[in-house]
Amino acid sequence: MLVPIQEFLHRHRTKWVGFAFILPWIVAALWFDLIPFVVNLLLSFTDYSVSTSIPNWTGTKNFNEIFTLDPLFSKSLGNTVYYLALSVPVRLVVALAIAILLNLRIMALGAFRTIFYVPSVVPLVAVSIIFFGMFNARYGIFNQVLILLDLPPVRWLTRPEWVKPAMVIMSTWGFGAQMVIFLAGLQGIPAELYEAAEMDGGNYWQKLFRITVPMLTPVIFFNLIIGIIGGFQVFASAYVLLGPGGGALNAGLFYVIHIYNNAFSYFRLGYAAALSVVLFLIILFFTIVMVRTSDRWVYYGDT
Amino acid sequence: MNTMTRRDFLRASGVSATLALVACTAAPPEPAASTEAEPTAARVEIEFMNWWGSHREELMNEVIANFHEMNSSVQVNNLVQPWDGRAERAATAVASNNPPALIMTQRVETYQFAHENLILPIDDYVQASGIDPDALFYTGEINNQRWQGQLYSFPLPTGGGNTGQYFYNKTVLSNAGLDPEMPITTWQELTTAAQAITQKDDIGVTVMGASLGGGPVGFGQWLYTNAGQFVSDDARTIEFHEDAGVQTLEWMVNFTNEINGGIDNTNEFLAGTSDTSADHPYYNEMLGFLFTGVWQFGHLQATDPDMWEDTSTWGVGQMPYNGNNPDAGHAGVAGLSGSWGYVIPSSTPQDQADAAYQYLEFFGTHEAGGCLFLFNQGRPSPVAQCNENPSYYDSNPYWDVVLKSLSSDVSVAVTPVQTRINDVVATVVEEAYFGVASPVDALAKGAEESQRILDEFWAG
Predict the structure, then answer these.
(1) B219 or B335, higher pLDDT
(2) Which of A145, A167, B10, B140 maximizes the CB count within 10 A of its CB?
(3) pLDDT category, B123, cuts 50, 70, 90?
(4) In angstroms, what separates the C-alpha of A50 from chain B's closest C-alpha?
(5) Which residue of B94, B117, B423 is in closest CB contact with A245?
(6) Residue of A nearest to B436 (CA)
């Protein structure tokens, strides 16, 4: 009996060793991702609250409420999409621009790279508190600059129309992680492409837009997807800066804050689970659209 | 106005207790025997999860030490929690399999947990110990801790005193040419005073008369000073959108727009400060009237001791009412939000639940417990007898106003879904402030949504 098993194991030895290596990841993914996901999905069809008792099955009631009765669903989703539409491109452009600058052969390059990356490792709560002061209408640095430029001061956090732009400005602060990925991408572009362009008389901008950007499209694509997923999940900075209500007229009430309020202020955990299922589907939709359209603009080389 | 030692406090308490006994034949019973020392019993250790941080932590440790002196069989560990994520922490702790034995919760949370059978009613303990909560506590205060006829905690501090009085800065009033010894009593006087005080420049307000506040408590406090009502007494029908409510919100919006230049101006003026931070405008002669709760006595004492000592710089009055409404009078709102209690999770092991109740009873009812704890913060106790301590008049120069304010407090009926309703009210009040909707339309919309939530709850 043992002999066939030993033979089987020996014959598929390479496969088993591979599985053994990825086993910790599989176990962690099952335990921390798949099981909570499935449980969340089940809870979204219940009236689960903090009670330890078994929740009641309510069918699609939570989803009906989301789409027909909850005024803050569309409000928070609209806020989040608005924030995404501004913050993701702005952050990508800033991260790419800084990465290109840091890819130049200049003195103290390591120091500059560190300086630009450091903001990304500062805790978000600390950053939010710092920005709270910077957005102050009377003493904040942003308004001081506006006043120097003879422009009227802005009530960044107390006027509903300025709340989301303020959040976008703050989110740009953490471009370091994307910058590092862009930097790695830039260093992977073959130098002979630039040499060939120079021989053909190409100037800096032509090299940037004809070589650098096309060659970076896989990295741009990656950063875009990560940015969109992260943008949909914006929470801590807005919560610290604006509170659970999202500031003036709920202008900064982002989707995840709405989920959080339902879960931990109202203890409507079943409803919050349904909201998070909807968020999952929205993110999935955007990701699929991005992946499906990527072959039109992402260049992976002549394969 | 210094804090008292336990010895001083008990001495004064003894005098007042004697006087009270003479004056009242039906005096409240002594603290239960269960809090007395039981040296032979096995020592039970319990965790007391609470949010009494800052200068209150030391006071709480003193109370726990007093308890340990009287009860050697229970060890109470003071687990002060950070304020961030408070509701989340409380909920996860209550629902866990190994919860702290005693958890500080707000009234609506207590109702939510009780509704879900996550916490233990304490009626059996109370009956066994022989105390009569209804004789001991103000009626509104003890009822704030009852849900569906069962008692889940003793109140501490008062749910009342949230909004029944205001603080004013006499220096600011003097600078504006107003008489600092004449506290305002009506909305109309407040409006006139605020107009005289408020100063603005190109960026915003530099000196503010008053911020009327927003949200359910801000709106609620003014609603009750206009003889209005948030919800019916049986907590089934929303009433805040009726005439008194509309009139109240219209006045709030007009006041804020005309005097402060809008709600954004008001919020910007107060942004980033709190009444526990030294840069708050009230402590810096930049805010005339501060509408806050009785906790402000403790905050003032801790944040600006010099101001606290000098009563020529600050004063306290009863909440101003609508002088044009003959039915209106001074009023405060109790239990619409806040109103703290201390609950025992259902999953607490029996010995720990017993020990938790022993501490709860001591903290809630004993002179060396909650009474001392609140006394040293200059704020009232929900135990009526504690407030009769004559030392209060020495320690708090405005004690008579506090007692009047407590007597004018109205306990608002709430349900476990009150947090949702409060958020709806907060939104519609903001819509009125920002001019998105007129006060009448905003309140009608809020009432419709709130009534739906309420109906859904009662139907469920």
Answers:
(1) B219
(2) A167
(3) very high
(4) 6
(5) B423
(6) A249
For B119, nearest residue in chain A (alpha carbons): A51
Separation in Å, CA of B419 to nearest CA in chain A = 6
Evaluate whether A195 touches A202 at the Cβ level (below 8 Å). no
Q: Which amino acid is at A296?
A: R
Residue B36 pLDDT > 60, yes or no?
no
Q: Are strands B409-411 and B332-334 parallel, antiparallel or unpaired?
A: parallel
Which chain B residue lies closest to A55 (C-alpha atoms)? B116
List B48's β-bridge partners, or say none: B78, B102
Chain A residues interacting with chain B (CB cutoff of 8 angstroms) = 47, 49-53, 69, 71, 132-133, 136-138, 143, 153, 155, 157-160, 245, 248-250, 261, 264-267
Distance from CA of B74 to the nearest CA of A (A): 28
Percent of chain B scored above 70 by pLDDT? 91
Instruction: For A119-157, write each residue's pLDDT tens digit.
Output: 888 998 899 989 999 999 988 999 999 999 999 999 999
State how far the Cα of A238 lies from the Cα of A254, in Å rounded to an integer: 8
Distance CA A237, CA B172 (A): 36
- Return the residue in A58, A158, A242, A262 with the most chain B beta carbons within 10 A, the one to mutate for interface testing: A158
Q: How many CB pairs under 8 A join A and B?
A: 81
Q: Which residues of B131-147 are buried (b: 16+ CB within 10 A; e: fewer)?
A: bebeebbbebbbbbbbb
CB-count exposure of residue B277 (10 Å: 0-12, 13-18, 19+): exposed
Contact B278, B303 (CB under 8 A): yes
d(CA A75, CA A92): 26
Q: Which residue of B has its CA nearest to A158?
A: B264
Kindly list the residues from chain B whose CB atom is less than 8 angstroms away from the CB atom of residue A160.
434
Least confident among A69-73, B6-10, B183-187, B240-244: B6-10
ipTM above 0.95?
no
Q: Which of A24-28, B4-8, B316-320 has the lowest mean pLDDT?
A: B4-8
Chain A residue with minimum CA distance to B91: A50
pLDDT of residue B3: 52
Does residue B28 surpass a pLDDT of 50? no
The pLDDT value recorded for residue B14 is 55
What is the Cα–Cα distance from A48 to A263, expressed in whole angstroms? 10
Nearest residue, CB atoms, A51 vs list B118, B264, B427: B118
Picking from A266, A268, A271 by the largest number of B CB atoms within 10 A of its own CB, the best residue to mutate is A266
Is the backbone of residue B41 left (phi > 0), alpha (psi -120 to 50) or beta?
beta
SS3 sequence of chain B: CCCCCHHHHHHHHHHHHHHHHHHCCCCCCCCCHHHCCCCCCCCEEEEEEECCCCCHHHHHHHHHHHHHHHCCCEEEEEEECCCCCHHHHHHHHHHCCCCCCEEEEEHHHHHHHHHCCCECCCHHHHHHHCCCHHHHECHHHHHCCEECCEECCCCCCCCCCCCCEEEEEHHHHHHCCCCCCCCCCEHHHHHHHHHHHCEECCCCEEEEEECCCCHHHHHHHHHHCCCCCCECCCCCCECCCCHHHHHHHHHHHHHHHHHHCCHHHHHHHHCCCCCCCCCCHHHHCCEEEEECCCHHHHHHHHHCHHHHHCCCCEEEEECCECCCCCCCCCCEEECCCCCEEEECECCCCHHHHHHHHHHHHHHHHCHHHHHHHHHCCCCCCCEHHHHHCCHHHHHCCCHHHHHHHHHCEEECCCCCCHHHHHHHHHHHHHHHHCCCCCHHHHHHHHHHHHHHHHHHHHHC
CA A13, A17, A20, A26 torsion: positive or negative? negative
> In which band, very low, low, confident or very high, does the pLDDT at B10 lie, cut at 50, 70 and 90?
low
